[in-house]
Specification:
There is one protein chain. The protein is built from one helix and nine strands; from the N terminus they run H-E-E-E-E-E-E-E-E-E. It is α+β, with helices and mostly antiparallel strands and 146 residues long. The chain has two domains: 2-31; 36-145, Immunoglobulins (Immunoglobulin-like). A five-stranded antiparallel β-sheet has the order 1-2-3-7-6, with no helix packed on it. The chain has a four-stranded antiparallel β-sheet with strand order 5-4-8-9, with no helix packed on it. A hairpin with a 2-residue loop joins strand 1 and strand 2 (54-61). The protein is elongated and about 85 Å long. Residues 24-33 have low confidence and may be disordered.
Length: 146
């Protein structure tokens, strides 16, 4: 009889823990709900951004942006930088950093190419950050949709 009560008591404790854990998991909101819409969608258009007194034009091609596909970045009217670097990373999920080479086309324009990894999220938000001598000078965000 004591064994039966012990088994029932143990089963009830497991059931309580299961409901507590299940309730905590269901309360967590997915990251995708916290994303606000972007002012400009690089999947549809080239985008213009202000940096100090300049207007920078950013272009990603082909449109729409796709995972596991070569993507070309074109930056127009950025200015002259000697040690310009590009760093791309996810904002709503950590997927590592992409640090593609960036090439100077002329005094103010640059280009680069990279491939984005596939992601299980419906919308993955990336940030492309431009650095000069390891100091951030400008960034823009874009979405990769599944």
């Amino acid at each position: 009889m004591k064994k039966l009560f012990s088994i029932i008591f143990f089963a009830l404790i497991l059931l309580v823990f299961y409901f507590i854990l299940n309730q905590n998991i269901s309360k967590k909101e997915p990251h995708i709900n916290s994303l606000k819409s972007l002012n400009c969608d690089l999947n549809v258009n080239d985008c213009a951004y202000k940096l100090k007194d300049k207007q920078i034009i950013i272009s990603l091609n082909p449109k729409p942006i796709k995972s596991l596909q070569n993507t070309k970045l074109l930056i127009k009217n950025l200015g002259t930088y000697e040690n310009l670097e590009l760093k791309i990373y996810g904002l709503n999920m950590f997927m590592g950093e992409i640090k593609p080479k960036i090439y100077k086309i002329n005094k103010t324009d640059y280009e680069s190419q990279f491939i984005l990894s596939s992601c299980s999220m419906h919308t993955m938000r990336f940030r492309a950050e431009l650095l000069d001598n390891n100091k951030s000078i400008f960034h823009f965000d874009f979405d990769l949709k599944r």
